[in-house]
Amino acid sequence: MNTKSVSELLEQDVTLQQVSVKGWVRTFRANRFIALNDGSTINNIQCVVDFENFDEALLKRITTGAAIHIEGELVESQGKGQNVEIVVSSIEVLGDSDPETYPIQPKKHTFEFLRENAHLRTRTNTFSAVMRIKSTLSFAVHKYFTENGFYNMHTPMITGSDAEGAGEMFRITTLDAKNPPLDENGDVDFKQDFFGKEANLTVSGQLEAETYAMSLGKVYTFGPTFRAENSNTSRHLAEFWMIEPEVAFMDLAGNMDLAEDFIKSVISYVLEHNQEDLKFLDERLFNEEKSKPQTERSEMRLIEKLKFVTDNNFKRVSYTEAIDILRNSKPNKKKKFKYLINEWGADLQSEHERFLVEKHFKCPVILFDYPANIKAFYMRLNDDEKTVRAMDVLFPGIGEIIGGSQREERLDVLKQKMAALDIPEEELWWYLDLRKYGTAVHSGFGLGFERLVMFATGMSNIRDVIPYPRTPQNAEF
Amino acid sequence: MNTKSVSELLEQDVTLQQVSVKGWVRTFRANRFIALNDGSTINNIQCVVDFENFDEALLKRITTGAAIHIEGELVESQGKGQNVEIVVSSIEVLGDSDPETYPIQPKKHTFEFLRENAHLRTRTNTFSAVMRIKSTLSFAVHKYFTENGFYNMHTPMITGSDAEGAGEMFRITTLDAKNPPLDENGDVDFKQDFFGKEANLTVSGQLEAETYAMSLGKVYTFGPTFRAENSNTSRHLAEFWMIEPEVAFMDLAGNMDLAEDFIKSVISYVLEHNQEDLKFLDERLFNEEKSKPQTERSEMRLIEKLKFVTDNNFKRVSYTEAIDILRNSKPNKKKKFKYLINEWGADLQSEHERFLVEKHFKCPVILFDYPANIKAFYMRLNDDEKTVRAMDVLFPGIGEIIGGSQREERLDVLKQKMAALDIPEEELWWYLDLRKYGTAVHSGFGLGFERLVMFATGMSNIRDVIPYPRTPQNAEF
Question: What band does B296 get if pLDDT is binned at 50, 70 and 90?
């Protein structure tokens, strides 16, 4: 008999057939009802055991977490909560699970406890739902870009350049840690290291993606990036995945259109394909927030919030307009902001972004045309020579989810900006070549994938949306 | 007027319309015919210029590599090689390309030269075709697994464990390179390093993928992996991408079925979606091989070889059978093998694998049930206690393209094997937990993505199927 998955069985409309299924026991009630799950769906299949027909020693091994093989007849369910159930004819225990020591018991565990048992936490409803949704989102990303004429490319993890400037980097090496070889000046001789020079883990694939955009037209990367920053927050990881599209002949307005269309598309895809997982997480969040004071609860439930994003236009606001709004805002006047906004040129903090999104506009916001001196060297200088064609997409509850820009395509301007920041031209000769040979307007953005997953699942700690989070002092598993 | 891509224009069947297109000049013949490409297809669109209507100074700037914006009328082409062409009404040069210095001239460049100009090499037909096919293959991978009920997961790049044993690792660190902090024994104090212990770049996501298979059922990873091995060959990279599915309740026979079905599916997908790119590469390889002596030429052309894989069953052969075949083979008897096969237990070298695939069976081969002592600790020991449930898929021209196994699911056997290899249990406590709590038969494999791309494109050096190859002494770009 062919073994079927739980999701296949729950979708069967032909009952009274013999079936075979393998999975892990979630609960075993009254020596009679096994709730069996195999990860294919958030739902369990109920397996009804006539305990008088089974050996007592066998039944004792049906414990939470045990792997079992069930055969029996698929019938219409008498109980509520499911359409079908299995009347069990045979049970084989594949792997026991000692109830005295198995950590994932059928009760509420804290997320902190589950992080310590990250290798087992996808055996819970919450984490299996999160990871199924994450997988759907990942596929939606590839599908969106593929259907829109983009080519996927693999930008390198290991980089010999440290000019990207997006953050602190990890060094990678095969030199002896204690006694590295030294050169004649007494400095570490990186010529003897694996790559013949100092090498680091990338903070972004953007610069390399630009090279491919300037030949293949529309490209995207989707891979790991790294930050060696000592940030122990619920929004930062040392290793996370980034989605970075880059498009030739596209300006900042096109970039905003792309960002908005992209996010709406992938969220729609999840709304369509993960209804049961979302329903579970929606309930979970709603119940969790019941214990909070009214003022700290979300104004919208999870699914409502996702639909709000897909159904509404993102508000596009220039940095200059945003500063005006913030300067005249209540929290600024009443000195409730930690960083008060006094003048044009101030860098916006998370509190300001959240005010704009959650209190003022009450919808996703795209801020654009930022002051040049608070943004990266590669961003296109506007004719005012004060602002650059940068954009940030801000989301409720998350803050910045996308950062992007039109890139500086003029060789002379780019060289001036690099010189002002002491970035040697030899480091980025190939990047400058793009401006020497057939340069053109082009734009792109970066989206931190885990932040998108947080938004789509309602999880509030980024450590809970990646299988094995890497953070300061932590590389367990 | 909406700007269209070259591929969109070439597919138009409505002519006599005004069109706008942007791209890079490939050639400009007779002051009249611009071949324009924007990366959307291997084909150029021909733009016909009536030079008497344009300024001579402007026409001089139409050089290979220049970015231009063309407007004009799309008409049926008079020449051969294309259905439509553009009668140009306006030309705007977006970015010049100095013909004296631009490296990618319309002539044959060696692959070595193009590797030094990797940031521009996708402006050639060969590399743009390779990268478009690679992108299609990547999508085909995600599509195959998604449609077959697998969940994508992101296994970590950074690992605190060095027990995976698949190869030499890179250390990642933020400690001072010259004067690292020392502990009381005078050793480097990795407690002060970013992760609080020594950390490395992963060689495989398998062990972590097993944790998710044992909860979500069917999962796969598709991400970078690393080897700090000093191998300067045409088949090895220090950084490459690996596809690793892992499935609960699946044995070695199921694993072989999955591997074969998977490869056939993704290659069929490319045959269907990249016909023009494949046709170009097929011609390229055929012409390249003309200069070789008959005996060194491929027996099949590229497309023929891909169809051969999708249309034929892979031959499944046990290691023991393979040893018999090799022992009695001509090259063994005539001592033509570098490593002669004398007895059962010998590790197979590339020359043996190629003999089996290319000379003996003349089709892809799956070897299985290898001697335990030449394979990894986590592979399922057979009842003979001499062999393990390992499999390697061998491809013509490539050799090993997939390595996989059924995993040892028995706690006591796994512990014994780890002890024999001095792998401390504390290092892999979470991996052992999978065998303590609801263990079950499970299997998976790893496929080096760049080797698949080599096979699908006919490229013979792995450095030519990844944008920016990382190899010993080389992390340029």
Answer: confident
Around Cβ B25, how many Cβ atoms within 10 Å? 24
Can you tell me which residue has the tokens 């052969």? B317
Provide, for chain B, the percentages of residues in helix, strand and coil under a 3-state DSSP scheme, each rounded to the nearest 5.
Answer: 35, 25, 40
Q: What whole-number distance in Å separates Cα of residue B367 and Cα of residue B353?
A: 9
The domain over range A6-102 is classified in CATH as 2.40.50.140: yes
| Chain Cα centroid distance, residue B159 | 23
Hey, what's the torsion of the CAs at B78, B80, B82, B84, to 10 degrees? 0
Lookup: tokens for A219:
């490209």
DSSP category for residue A386: S
Q: Does domain B123-168+203-464 have CATH number 3.30.930.10?
A: yes
Residues 36-55 of A with CB under 8 A from B: 38-40
Residues from chain A that touch B178, judged by Cβ atoms under 8 A, are 180, 182, 187-188
Q: What share of chain A is helix, strand, coil (3-state, %, to 5)?
A: 35, 25, 40
Beta-carbon contacts of residue B462 (< 8 Å; ≥ 6 apart): B234, B235, B236, B237, B240, B450, B451, B454, B469
A303 forms beta bridges with none
Cα-based distances in Å from A387 to A251, A367, A369, A375, A382:
15, 12, 6, 9, 6
With an 8 Å Cβ cutoff, is B232 touching chain A?
A: no
Helix (H, G, I), strand (E, B) or coil at A95: strand
User: If you measure CA to CA, which chain A residue comes closest to B3?
Assistant: A249
Pairing of strands B218-226, B151-152: parallel
Which member of B98, B433, B438 has the closest CB to residue A67? B438
Mean pLDDT of B448-467: 97
B158-159: strand order across its sheet: A158-159, A199-201, A171-173, B171-173, B199-201, B158-159
What would the mean pLDDT of B8-23 be, rounded to a whole number?
91
**Which residue(s) pair with B405 in the sheet?**
B390, B444
Question: Sheet of B239-248: strands edge to edge?
Answer: B151-152, B218-226, B239-248, B442-448, B399-406, B387-395, B365-371, B315-318
The type of residue at B85 is E
Q: Kindly list the domain boundaries of chain B, sorted by start residue.
A: 6-102, 123-168+203-464
ipTM, interface predicted TM-score of the complex? 0.97
Place of tokens 């060194």: B296
**B108: which 2 tokens?**
């044959």
Interface list for B 201-230 with A (CB within 8 A): 201, 208, 211-212, 215-218, 223-224, 226, 228, 230
Give the nearest chain A residue to B97 (CA atoms): A437
What distance in Å separates the CA atoms of residue B226 and residue B102, rounded to the nearest whole number? 34
Across chain A, which has 477 residues, the per-10-residue mean pLDDT values are 94 87 97 97 97 95 98 90 92 97 94 97 98 98 98 96 76 96 96 96 96 98 96 94 98 98 98 98 95 85 95 96 97 96 94 94 96 95 97 91 97 96 93 98 98 97 98 95
Asked if residue B75 has pLDDT above 70, the reply is: yes
Cα angle, residue B53 at apex, residues B47 and B57 outer, rounded to 5°: 85
CA B392 – CA B371 distance, rounded (Å):
13
- pLDDT recorded at residue A164: 61
Cβ-based burial of A73 (10 A; exposed 0-12, middle 13-18, buried ≥19): middle
CA diameter of chain A: 86
